[in-house]
């Protein structure tokens, strides 16, 4: 009896999966996007050979389930009873059609609404029936209670290459009426053309057309020792078990993660190693690639040799074999997280039908608060281009005590030194690095210029790349160029006996992935008009003034370890990454734009590069006043006291030549002092005057400095504030050059004592 409406079946919810997959409809668009991104990355990195690129892209566009000969495929069907009385269904079996590998899609007949008779078959074991080209599972009977919804799983095992199309479902209702329910599953609604928009047209759906290939590897996964909760910053080691349940060797295994800053995959020999207990005498400088990268795609190491003794660059897992690799998880951000893990792998032997296979998996974990860290910087009062770093650390736990073990800084030009902690005193270190529950500690450090600095100048590469983005003659050339490697200074302040290394697994991976996550988020906010696909050809991972801090800790009584990152500190002169001019961009590209929309997009992009509201330029010149704190003088016999004052000006920009004018102001010209004269003070500030020249002008090239000597004349014993000056800086090599005016905001006191 055709057209029987019992039970109700929603065609769009029917799924076909392999035995190593889970039927799930949660966020299918996210998974499809991840699959496409993983495919493009695999092609770009050469994981998929050039001869298989077209095949891989076609496979991705088809959205078909790929099944090897002899592999079970499971069809998931939701049945719903809309009646107020129960119904029973018996002898449930799929309706299928087999097509040979040479049959084109246009030659395949669509499922008809007419009744389709049950073909002849032979019974096998475990409720399976042989239909020559494939085997099907038959369910004896199920009962649907009133308004009940139930999912049934029916197995199909292909026996020949080609394709098996799921056409419908055979069943008997209440042991009386036998019927066939055809499946008509539609693809996405099309709206690319006017005709498609005006009418209801759907793309063809091939999710029920199972592609059957020659024997292939089949990946099966298991995660061991994954806890439900971890602390923020805590690092734990889990185990990833990789099984090959197929009939061919598995190779080129790669993972794409939705949370790349949370995970790191290591080599099998790194299993159970003490990451934080290592002591290493690694060099103070390391060279690294400064290009942006896709941190979400991770190659997974496999055994290097196959069963025949041959070497494979990606490793091989033989059929039926199992391998274990360490998987570290770090609580990068607080909250409940579901890691989407997409695995891609290939057959050791070439397959003419498919290029690779994928497997979806998820891991759930909750990250709890541990330490709350606030950091701030301010210029140092003792040297130009030095800074004081203050770190406030609060223990948010109610029971556990945290012990700080090490602070590591990585930067192209900066080093870090302790100020408030005497690392040579065991008592002082213990008192200032142990944080009891619900307590807060403060520490101060000095950031100064390293003796050896990086000279790759990533800012110049970025500026040139941004200019080439809109220039017609060099755009293609710049797309292929890569930034020079960056030399990072490693400075460590150890609070324990161990020396935790940076350049090791998984610590280096976590550091780079966290920086990449911060860098990409930062670029998205600063340059919303530039697509993410262009980032790697326009920006670098590190800029010269960047400094990243890693604060390591442990909880001895709980045997827990971890570290927190302080990323995004840039102590260089803040400048727009694009250092060209608006006129240069307009002159470089004289081609006329064909479409008005394209012209508007280009104009918007030019304005975002030349007048970026997210990046306000800073003055390139920094100033420091030096003078003795105290002077003794015989005012009665020797008269006036002349105190030498040294003023150092340094151009800290990497490219901008600046003109400066320094005016030494007399006491009477400081309106701020007059305004504050009526306010009560803890001590009296005496007036003074400058002797000699009080106006200095000049030009400073990048990284150039000048020392200016002046004399402050003091009349009487007392306390004097000699920070009375005004610095005007102008850069003429940029559109709308801003004039920067510096004035002191702190006091520079000199105490004059009478003999």
Automatic annotation (TrEMBL):
GO terms for cellular component: TRAPPIII protein complex. Residues 27-231 form the TPPC8 first Ig-like domain. Residues 233-359 form the TPPC8 second Ig-like domain. Residues 362-554 form the TPPC8 third Ig-like domain. InterPro entries: Ig_TPPC8_1st (IPR058541), Ig_TPPC8_2nd (IPR058538), Ig_TPPC8_3rd (IPR058540), Ig_TPPC8_C (IPR057651), TRAPP_III_complex_Trs85 (IPR024420). Residues 621-730 form the TPPC8 C-terminal Ig-like domain. This is Trafficking protein particle complex subunit 8. The gene is TRAPPC8_0.
């Amino acid at each position: 009896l055709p057209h029987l409406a019992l039970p109700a079946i929603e065609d769009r919810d029917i799924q076909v999966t392999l035995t190593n997959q889970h039927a799930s409809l949660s966020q299918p668009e996210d998974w499809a996007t991840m699959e496409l991104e993983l495919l493009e990355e695999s092609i770009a990195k050469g994981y998929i050979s050039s001869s298989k690129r077209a095949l891989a892209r076609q496979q991705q566009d088809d959205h078909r389930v790929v099944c090897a000969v002899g592999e079970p495929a499971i069809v998931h069907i939701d049945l719903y009873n809309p009646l107020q009385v129960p119904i029973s269904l018996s002898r449930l079996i799929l309706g299928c059609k087999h097509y040979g590998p040479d049959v084109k899609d246009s030659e395949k007949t669509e499922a008809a609404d007419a009744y389709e008779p049950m073909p002849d078959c032979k019974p096998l074991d475990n409720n399976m029936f042989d239909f020559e080209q494939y085997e099907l599972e038959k369910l004896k009977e199920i009962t649907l209670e009133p308004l009940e919804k139930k999912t049934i799983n029916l197995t199909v095992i292909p026996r020949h290459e080609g394709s098996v199309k799921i056409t419908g479902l055979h069943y008997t209702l209440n042991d009386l009426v036998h019927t066939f329910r055809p499946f008509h599953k539609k693809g996405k609604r099309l709206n690319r053309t006017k005709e498609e928009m005006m009418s209801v047209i759907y793309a063809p759906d091939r999710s029920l057309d199972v592609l059957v290939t020659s024997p292939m590897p089949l990946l099966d996964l298991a995660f061991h020792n994954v806890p439900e909760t971890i602390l923020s910053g805590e690092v734990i080691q889990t185990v990833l078990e990789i099984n090959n349940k197929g009939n061919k060797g598995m190779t080129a295994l790669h993972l794409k993660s939705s949370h790349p800053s949370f995970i790191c995959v290591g080599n099998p020999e790194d299993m159970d190693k003490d990451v934080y207990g290592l002591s290493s005498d690694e060099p103070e400088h390391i060279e690294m690639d400064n290009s942006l990268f896709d941190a979400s795609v991770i190659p997974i190491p496999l055994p290097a040799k196959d069963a025949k003794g041959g070497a494979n660059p990606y490793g091989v897992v033989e059929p039926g074999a199992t391998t274990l690799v360490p998987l570290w998880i770090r609580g990068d951000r607080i909250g409940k997280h579901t890691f989407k893990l997409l695995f891609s792998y290939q057959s050791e032997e070439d397959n003419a039908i498919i290029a690779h296979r994928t497997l979806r998996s998820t891991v759930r974990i909750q990250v709890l608060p541990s330490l709350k860290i606030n950091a701030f910087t301010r210029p140092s009062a003792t040297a130009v281009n030095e800074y004081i770093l203050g770190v406030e650390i609060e223990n948010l736990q109610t029971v556990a005590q945290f012990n700080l073990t090490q602070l590591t800084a990585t930067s192209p030009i900066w080093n870090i030194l302790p100020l408030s902690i005497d690392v040579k005193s065991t008592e002082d270190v213990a008192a200032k690095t142990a944080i009891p529950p619900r307590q807060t500690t403060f520490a101060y450090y000095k950031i100064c210029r390293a003796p050896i600095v990086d000279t790759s100048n990533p800012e110049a590469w970025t500026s040139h790349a941004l200019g080439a983005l809109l220039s017609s003659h060099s755009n293609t050339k710049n797309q292929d160029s890569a930034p020079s490697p960056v030399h990072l200074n490693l400075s460590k302040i150890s609070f324990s006996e161990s020396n935790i290394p940076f350049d090791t697994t998984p610590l280096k991976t976590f550091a780079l992935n966290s920086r990449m996550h911060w860098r990409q988020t930062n670029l998205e906010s600063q340059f919303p008009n530039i697509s993410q696909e262009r980032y790697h050809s326009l920006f670098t991972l590190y800029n010269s003034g960047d400094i990243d801090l890693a604060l390591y800790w442990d909880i001895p009584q709980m045997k827990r370890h971890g570290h927190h990152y302080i990323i995004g500190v840039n102590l260089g002169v803040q400048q727009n990454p694009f250092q060209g001019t608006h006129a240069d961009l307009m002159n470089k590209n004289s081609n006329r734009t064909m479409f008005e929309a394209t012209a508007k997009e280009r104009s918007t992009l030019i304005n975002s590069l030349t007048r970026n509201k997210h990046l306000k330029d800073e003055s390139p010149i920094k100033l420091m006043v030096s003078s003795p704190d105290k002077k003794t003088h015989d005012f009665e016999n020797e008269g006036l006291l002349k105190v030498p004052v040294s003023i150092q000006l340094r151009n800290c920009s990497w490219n901008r030549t600046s003109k400066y004018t320094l005016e030494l102001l007399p006491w009477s010209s400081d309106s701020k002092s007059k305004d504050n004269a009526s306010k009560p003070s803890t001590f009296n500030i005496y007036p003074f005057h400058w002797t000699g020249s009080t106006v200095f002008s000049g030009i400073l090239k990048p990284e150039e400095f000048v020392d200016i000597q002046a004399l402050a004349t003091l009349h009487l014993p007392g306390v004097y504030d000699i920070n009375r000056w005004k610095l005007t800086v102008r850069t003429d090599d940029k559109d709308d050059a801003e004039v920067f005016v510096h004035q002191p905001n702190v006091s520079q006191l000199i105490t004059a004592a009478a003999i």
